[in-house]
Amino acid sequence: MDRSIDSVADTAKPVAKDMSHHYSDLAKARKPSSMKMFYKFFAIPGIANFAGGLPNAKFFPFDTLEAQSAHPHRWRPTPNYPGVDAAAETSSDNSPTAASHVVVPHAADTADLDKKIDLTTALQYGQASGYPPLFSYIRQFTRECLHPNVPYEGGPDVALTVGSTDGFSKVLELFVNTWVEGKNDIRERPGMLAEVFIYPSILNQAHPRGIQVCPVEMDDEGMAPYGPGGLEDVLANWDDAKGKRPHLLYTVSMGHNPTSGILSLQRRRELYEICSKYDVIIVEDEPYWYLQFPSAAIKEAQARNKPIPEYKAANTLPNKSGYPFLDSLVPSFLNIDVDGRVIRLDTFSKTVAPGCRLGWVTSTPAICERIVRISESGTQQPSGFVQSIIAENIMGPQPEAAAAFASRSRRDQATFTGWKTEGWVRWLAGLRGEYERRMNSMCSLLEEHAYQLKQSTPVRDADSDWGVITKTKLYEFEWPRGGMFLWVKVHFEEHPLFQAAGSQGNVIDGPALSTALMTFLTHKPYLVLVSPGMMFSTSPQIAVERGWAYFRLCFAAETDEKNSACSTQFGQGVQKFWRIKKVAELEALLEEAGALEANEIEELTNLGWMGC
Amino acid sequence: MDRSIDSVADTAKPVAKDMSHHYSDLAKARKPSSMKMFYKFFAIPGIANFAGGLPNAKFFPFDTLEAQSAHPHRWRPTPNYPGVDAAAETSSDNSPTAASHVVVPHAADTADLDKKIDLTTALQYGQASGYPPLFSYIRQFTRECLHPNVPYEGGPDVALTVGSTDGFSKVLELFVNTWVEGKNDIRERPGMLAEVFIYPSILNQAHPRGIQVCPVEMDDEGMAPYGPGGLEDVLANWDDAKGKRPHLLYTVSMGHNPTSGILSLQRRRELYEICSKYDVIIVEDEPYWYLQFPSAAIKEAQARNKPIPEYKAANTLPNKSGYPFLDSLVPSFLNIDVDGRVIRLDTFSKTVAPGCRLGWVTSTPAICERIVRISESGTQQPSGFVQSIIAENIMGPQPEAAAAFASRSRRDQATFTGWKTEGWVRWLAGLRGEYERRMNSMCSLLEEHAYQLKQSTPVRDADSDWGVITKTKLYEFEWPRGGMFLWVKVHFEEHPLFQAAGSQGNVIDGPALSTALMTFLTHKPYLVLVSPGMMFSTSPQIAVERGWAYFRLCFAAETDEKNSACSTQFGQGVQKFWRIKKVAELEALLEEAGALEANEIEELTNLGWMGC
Fold this sequence. Notes:
Two copies of one chain form a homodimer. Chain A is α/β, with parallel strands linked by helices. Chain A has helices spanning 25-29, 36-42, 87-90, 119-122, 132-146, 164-175, 200-206, 231-236, 265-277, 295-303, 324-327, 365-376, 384-395, 399-404, 420-447, 510-521, 540-545, 560-577, 583-593, 601-605, and strands at residues 48-49, 62-70, 99-104, 157-161, 191-195, 212-216, 248-251, 281-285, 342-347, 359-363, 451-455, 469-473, 475-477, 485-490, 528-529, 531-532, 550-554. The longest helix of chain A has 28 residues, at 420-447. The interface between A and B is large, with 131 and 131 residues.
């Protein structure tokens, strides 16, 4: 990480555009925490600071913060280019159980705030942009490793958040005036574009602010730029009478939740051009960016006896990070953001743990500065406990840590040298390996039960022992190109009881069958809980029209063993569900589901699902 | 902590009133994260959860989280009732350097979520109300130890925050619609009551939302209920043409920042009655609640040769916590809150460390539930790193922690049994002891320089070697009854150059002298930086009229040695400043101060001062 993008002739780059016309009233009114006039006094050598309201670090009850930290090679990576780069698959350097002891000392003896990692600074009041050592590391990693091609002058800045839910909440505060039906003019109603299927927590954040979330059509890759219901279509044919033309676009473009697609660079260019034309801010929420699975397309083809697709590099941009794993991933919208209209949300929730409550926003310096103002009035900085232990784990060790432990016998202390960027990238590659194998395992097991085979000859007598086998597709899916989810479309219209008469004069429609199957799968011996697709529908209309046909299956949470066993059980359960012949059986399942009945679709789509 | 307030006949208690008419539009529109319909499925034994979007805890890179934790007796307490309770002062059980090793294991083997403290749960997605073990501990401590007299049925609930700045931000989101000048009707403008001097970060949070912050007169104790400019006066004579009558009252009632008063129980009753009459929500922000200094009044009297005040118990309410230290403190507004209109903000910032970013809100269950909804859409839970290490430190140890360490030699591990509530209360008492001694030290040193002694006989000749000594009071202050600050009033009107003609045709007024002295004190040999009182003025008018006469001195941040040395230097600096005879000297100081000039008072009062 010794190459600086600042070395590129910056003067040739376009200046990021001013986006302040999009700011909310509240955001416009927030003033920066202007301590500048006091800085000159703070800097006087030996001055006693009776001015601030800081407690004395001597009274913090912790003398150290420590952790047993995994070796960055703990998990086995998968190839970046299957068939081209096989080295990783056979790599034998993983050491599953090894751990090192990481120590954040009480006081580190350095004046360089970007390198000083200790409890005296980490547990004191700090900067809302982030703990200086971690902030500077993340900023450098972001600029040089993740997004080395950002086209605007000076490049992007970062601001730490307490996770991406917080990050998105701050983005909404920055760009949206709360709109209230019956109180505010409909022409003032804020709008936000998103794919037809969406991470439901986003709706929970947007709806209370009065935001109209406008679904945009998508395919396996992600949002569609053109065609009916595509981005251009929605914006060009906007009806002002139903609200303001949306100035925000929300997307998960790498391992989309729930559909698991990855947006190609070419598609990004097309969408970006439209956003630029209509002056739309792009919010790119990427918790799964490092979970891009190049083997998925190949293994899917093999499983289905189709031709193996040709290898195509996902990233054809000129500047590289120098880390083959990172350079193999599809690049962020930031790398084509000539206007400065992209805000990316990153999080440590999936790379370290959700309980970190630590993430960051990447955007233009002007937008990051506004995010910091919002943090100053709310969350302030992320917790110093997580900031310091992660900083120490990656950037450590501090010489003081060893000294603090001189008196304690530690066989693992001496060997720890900090993960550094190499270790951090290797850790990410290892995680990708684990999740990619789980994804492949679930998919191959689901393939085995996707069809119902039925002998269609009605009568077997002694004279004819042959029969015609019919094959009915019960469900279909793409092998996930990224993320943590498998998005299964179930062909309920093929179920024998589809549109059958119910006992109340109703018909057994798609939503009813969907709810019945979901409930059925939780029974023994299947014992699988899946998420109904209605929950991920961007509008109630989408839930009613097509959301019911889908289930989302997460291959991340369970053990390897359970992941495999229950993938099989899912397939077996669907097969068995198809053999239900009595409406009464379905109605019993629907009764059991209770609140999950079809007439509560709207509530279902408004569900919060923390940590989806 | 074995006594439950639930054992009190709850049916005899009043039901908390519904405060939802005060909720903001945004808060009203927020829905709870309704996962309830899924709970029955989660509870099926052996079910595979393919529904949630959780990463696998196996992939968290930390196998343990550990810390060297202080013995709870590290710091020496002061008596709860000086002259009555002398035991604490002579207590010899403090052990300044001892530390225990605290370990949060990767997985604890208990099914009781309120006792399970491990990384598998703490670092996973969790509940916005807080990490179950810590949440349940804080809830019990709050209900049984801090506020055992809450009068409404069922008692209060708690919701964890990422610190009190976050807590107050959520309170504002819950109760305030953003108001924009020139866009919204003036009669809709929200208002908030506060003392004439205020923690400036509160203004930074309130002003951008369009809140009119209305100053209420105060005395040494705190907010005045009656009299001109008192609470009743402000509310009774409210002019609707300048905005809505305030429905919020903000106060720091225990160690007020910056004036350091403590509101008596009697005064609380008077203020509460007025708030009840005018339907005002009371927000009580108490970072310093445990820093109540019973020796201050006695030592102040001794220093000034005045009669020692009689001992008066601060808490005369019937229910006790059983911990003499806690029971000696003045009780919160919550303990007289028959209506359910009090919201209290607590934080670990001063009891553990600001970098925790951990605190909690205490109020009625209905209000706490709304705070949790807001958290779900933003911060989610506080960081699992800080939640688990604090839970383990107080509630530990987990038996698994010892097991995790069986293979490592640890002389300090075996002895750790967790602080428990007794240790936690003892830790707080020890901190109070340290800060109380620092306060007394600063005050006694400031007493020494408060007067300028001058021989008023103009000519001394051989025949008369006597003279008249005149005593001019340069500054005055109350010895702080609580908190971290000393609030000094400087008698600039006694300065020889007060109202002198400046070189620009101006006069050297109070604000100018104040700024000049602040700058002068940063010079050698004084080297003291103090906070100007203008910063803490609730309105620009108060800054201009009287704020300039005050400085706030923090006795918490510096070392004991520097605290003493620089208190003396402050006194000497003021003495020396009084000997300045030339306007030019003052003008040089003003020029040096630059941005701190009097004409920038408004900017000064809008200053953010993170961690004041």
